[in-house]
Structures are given as C-alpha cells and as structure tokens.
Design brief:
The complex is a heterodimer of chains A (about 300) and B (about 270). Chain A is elongated and about 90 Å long. Chain A folds into 2 domains: about 60 residues; about 200 residues, MetI-like (MetI-like fold, Orthogonal Bundle), CATH 1.10.3720. Chain A has about 300 residues and is an all-alpha fold. Chain B has 2 domains: about 190 residues, P-loop containing nucleotide triphosphate hydrolases (Rossmann fold, 3-Layer(aba) Sandwich); about 70 residues, no CATH class. Helices cover about 35% and strands about 25% of the residues of chain B. Chain B has 8 helices and 9 strands. A 6-stranded mixed sheet of chain B has the order 5-6-7-3-8-9, with helices on both faces. In chain B, a hairpin with a 4-residue loop joins strand 8 and strand 9. In chain B, helix 4 packs across helix 5 and helix 7 crosses helix 8. Chain B starts with 10 loop residues before the first strand and ends with a helix. The chains are: A mainly alpha (about 300), B alpha/beta (about 270). At the A-B interface, helix 8 and helix 9 of A face strand 5 and helix 3 of B.
C-alpha cells in the first residue's frame, strides 16, 4: 500500500463521514430548537442570542436528536471509562449481542449452503423449497421473533440460542440465493471437461462447483453477517432482555434516554461495518487464491 | 476386429449416416446431416468449414458431449458413451479452460485425481506430459501467470495425461496470434509423430488444416454436412517450410475450392 492508494481509499470515506456529521448537526439544531425555545420561555428569558440557542440545542439531557459529540461522549464514557463487566458498559452489551449474532450467522451460513446444495442437485426441491424460502423472508421478523422466543422457551431453550435462531432465520436467505447461483456458475467448458473425464457428480461438486461458488459465498456472507446483527438486536427487544444492544435500545426508550439509544445504534452499526469488512477481507484473499482477481 | 486388423487400417472412429437435429423454439435446426466418416489409427484429420457447418458439433458427438439423433457412430468399436467412460480420448477446448485456482501441475493432475491414481503416479505423469509440451519448470505457476500459448499447451498436456490414443481438438489455437500458432502447430506435429496418436482437429484456417493433416474434411453449413474429404500426399513429418511448396499450395487451393463450392448454394 502506498500513500496514493491510501489516500484513494480514505478520502472518499472521510468526505462522506464529514457530510453526514454536518447534516446531523444541522438536523439536531433544527429538531431541538422548539424545546430549547420553550425552555427559555419558561425561564422568562426572552433575550437570548442565536449562539445561546444553538449551544442549548447541543447540550440537552434528553434531546429529540442528540448531537454527534454528545453521542461520541456517551460511547466513550460507556466503553473506555467503564469496566467490561459493568452492566453499563457498552462493550459488555455489544459482546452479548455479537455472540448471538455470530452464532446465528454461522448456523445460517451452514444452513444456507446445505439448502443451496439440495436445491441445485434436486430439481423437485428447487420447485418445492424455493417459494417457501422466499416466503420466509416476506414475514416481518419483528412479528415472528417473539413467537420464536416463546416457542423455544416452552421447549426449554433459553439464553443465547433463541436469539441466534432469529439471526439464522434472517441470514440463511442471502447465502441460499448466492450459493444457488454460485454452484451453477461454472463455465460450460469447465463442466464439459469434467464430463470428458467421466467424473462422478461428487467429484464435479468438490473439484469444480464448490471452488467456483466461493466468491459468491463471500459476497452473500457479507449481507448475511450484517442482517444477523439486526436479527440479534431485534431478538432482544421482545424478550425484555437485560443485556445486549437491543436491551440498551429498549431501556433507553423506556426512560427517554435518546443519547443512550443513539450510542447503542452507533455501536451496532460500527460493529456490523467491521464484520462486513472482515468478511470482505477474507473474501478478497480467497478470490485472489482462486485466481479470480488481479494480483498486484 | 482387433487381431489382424490392428495393423495400419484399424478404424478408430466409424460414423454412418449420422444426423443431429436440435429442437428449438424456432423449429428444428439441422446441425449435422447424413455424416459418413471413417478415421483410422494414426490419422490426423482436420474438420474445416465456415461457422455453422457443424464441425464443433461433430467433434462433440464423437466426445459424447452431444448425442446424435440418427445414424451410427462407434469409437474403438464401442459407443461414444462407453469410450468416454473408458477415457479413450483427450479433449482440448478452444479456450484453455484451465481451472484458475489450480497450479499448472494440479490442472494436469485433475483427470488423474478423478481416475483415482496414486500421488506418485500422478506426479510422474504430470512431469512427463508437461515435458512433452515444453512446460517443465512451470508446475507451480498459476494459469494467469502464463501466456495464452503456454496455457493452451498446458491444456494439451492435461488432455494427454489420461494417455488416450485419440486426441480431439476444437480450434485449440484459434485465439492465439499467428506466430504462436505456427510454433504450436509445429510442436503438435512433432508430438503426433512421436506418440502416434489419432487426432481429430477442428479449425477454420486453411493453412493450418493443410499443414497438419493427413485428411482434410471440408464441411458446409445449413444443414451441416461433409462436402468433400481430401487426402493429403504430403509426407508425415513436415516442417513449416513445406507451406511454400507447390504441392502444399495446390492442396490448399483444393480445400479453398471445396469450401467455396460448399458455400455457393447458400447465396441462391
């Protein structure tokens, strides 16, 4: 990596990030102004300057929209300044959510691959299974999640697993779709070649179809890991969970702690972004090994 | 059939009244019509013709990649399917079709893995066949690290690795530039002479067909059929200079006339 390519990859990211922050500040000022004006009015202070008004909108305890630095400070206070074991530590809550998201992601990926193999090798399954798989994703997860939790609880499954199931429910879908495409993607001549070698269909699977599908697998895993994270958070909402980013969101909304909500949201999106980047990096290495990407 | 006949006139491929019709939504496409062709052991047979004349389809029927709808075909006196299952032929595609995630040695070893050969045997055969196509020393390279000509040589080594008596080649040098193509033609001829294999070679280049072949099968399109089979009197072992001789030029002219005659009715 030289300086030029570093600049090429970081400059656009920084530009977008600063644009988001500017918009966020503007929105915070606009949205928090009515409350701030009301506050001045109640204090019989009709002689405030614009600077006072603006700084007021940025420092409310329960703003409609917290400003970026308030959220940043909250994230800092609840990560760096709290012990990991503390119930108020955001790292502790992230860990809880992350563990069920990753377990669900792993199960979902495995299930997705197995379903894809079944679909590709069995035309009847392709016809019968695919509509159900698509239908499964049209049901709003928010409606299904409580039922899954309740049903699993009734059969004695508690803790990490029910949440992981919901992550799996969401994340297997992109893997099925990606892998069905990937397993069907070998060139005609590559497939003909296997035919001329009189290869069995198991040999064709392991030596041709599976290797060819790997780039598709990693692309779909990037989507899957992000929605596994969403699934884990959603799963924490109906259970009244005491730990996890979802629990933080719920507690925040009970007590109108908008800053807490936003810091949990920021944490969740940063985690999801890091996971996607990590999968992307592995995918890139695999692609390179598969000779599918230009070697620099 | 095997004992006395196995001298010079053993038939490797026998095709009688073979036709192939593809059914499409636009109605039937007559890809091959009434093909009769015998190929003897050690022959180098080129199938030449304009695109759409069915030369590649005919090669694919021989390789059991397509099924004939009518007529008879036998390879070594058995059906193409049985011949394929015995791995009686090696097939070289137009594109090298190497697996990009495998090294050159692993690509050549692919059919041997499928046959279930021991790793020692695989190593020995890979080394021998890579040497045959002058690619020793490139075992651990990946396909993208090799030029187009080298990739195609690797794919020939892969086809030879199963040690077939019959080599089926579908415009193997079509995508290469002329200098590389000349060079590979020369090497292929040496290889053919050294190993005494039977070769069926699809091309649309007249000089290539005349330079390489003992028999040139001129085909014409719509429906795909054999227009003429021209036997070459050129010596078995030739070098590139032969292309300047009157014999070569007259042969090339005969092929050209054949192609033109096969084509002419199309304009009516």
């Amino acid at each position: 990596m030289n300086i030029k390519s570093l600049r090429l990859s970081f400059v656009p990211v920084l530009v977008v990030l600063s644009a988001i922050i500017v918009c966020w500040y503007v929105a915070a000022a606009v949205l928090n102004t009515p409350w701030q004006q009301d506050k001045f009015k109640r204090a019989d202070n009709n002689d405030y300057s614009l600077v006072e008004l603006l700084s007021g909108t940025m420092s409310q305890e329960r703003p409609v929209l917290p400003s970026p630095h308030q959220v940043a400070l909250e994230v800092y206070n609840t990560t760096v300044k709290k012990k990991i074991t503390s119930k108020r530590s955001l790292i502790f809550h992230s860990g809880v959510t992350l563990s069920s998201a990753l377990l669900g992601f792993a199960m979902g990926t495995l299930m997705g691959i197995l379903l894809a193999v079944a679909i590709v090798y069995n035309r009847a399954l392709n016809k019968s299974l695919m509509p159900w798989i698509i239908a499964s994703q049209t049901i709003p997860i928010l409606a299904v999640a409580p039922m899954i939790i309740v049903v699993l609880n009734a059969v004695g499954i508690q803790g990490l697993l029910p949440k992981a199931f919901i992550s799996m429910y969401l994340s297997f879908f992109p893997v099925v779709v990606g892998m069905v495409k990937g397993l069907n993607s070998p060139d005609a001549s590559h497939t003909d070649l296997m035919h001329t070698f009189n290869a069995s269909s198991a040999q064709t699977f392991w030596k041709l179809r599976l290797p060819t599908s790997l780039p598709y697998l990693f692309t779909s895993m990037k989507v899957a890991v992000a929605i596994a994270m969403v699934g884990a958070i959603v799963a924490e909402l109906p259970t009244g969970a005491v730990a996890g980013l979802g629990a933080r969101l719920l507690a925040g909304s009970y007590y109108g702690q908008t800053i807490q909500i936003w810091s949990a949201l920021v944490m969740a999106s940063v985690l999801a972004a890091l996971l996607v980047m990590f999968i992307g990096l592995i995918g890139k290495l695999v692609n390179r090994r598969m000779g599918l990407e230009q070697h620099g | 059939m095997n004992e006395a006949a196995s001298s010079a006139f053993e038939k490797v491929i026998e095709i009688n009244n073979l036709s192939l019709t593809f059914k499409t939504s636009d109605g039937p496409v007559f890809a091959l019509n009434d093909i009769n062709l015998d190929i003897e052991r050690g022959d180098f047979v080129s199938l030449i013709g304009p695109s759409g004349c069915g030369k590649t389809t005919l090669l694919r029927v021989i390789a059991d990649l397509e099924k004939a709808t009518e007529g008879e075909i036998s390879i070594n006196s058995v059906s193409p399917e049985q011949a394929r299952m015995q791995r009686a032929y090696g097939y070289v595609f137009q594109a090298a079709s190497l697996y990009p995630w495998r090294t050159i040695a692993k690509n050549v070893a692919l059919p041997l893995e499928i046959m279930g050969l021991s790793s020692a045997m695989r190593r020995e055969r890979v080394a021998r066949n890579l040497e045959l196509v002058n690619l020793s020393g490139f075992e651990n390279k990946y396909p993208w690290q090799l030029s187009g000509g080298m990739q195609q040589r690797a794919s020939i080594a892969r086809a030879l690795a199963v040690e077939p008596d019959l080599l089926l080649m579908d415009e193997p040098f079509g995508a290469l530039d002329e200098i590389v193509r000349d060079h590979l033609n020369e090497q292929l001829l040496k290889l053919w002479d050294k190993t005494n294999k039977t070769v069926v070679f699809v091309t649309h280049s007249i000089p290539e067909a005349v330079y390489l072949s003992t028999h040139i099968v001129v085909m014409s399109p719509r429906p795909g059929q054999i227009h003429e089979i021209i036997k070459s009197d050129l010596p078995r072992m030739r070098n590139l200079d032969i292309r300047e001789t009157p014999e070569f030029l007259s042969l090339a002219n005969r092929v050209r006339d054949g192609l033109r005659a096969g084509h002419s009715y199309e304009d009516q």
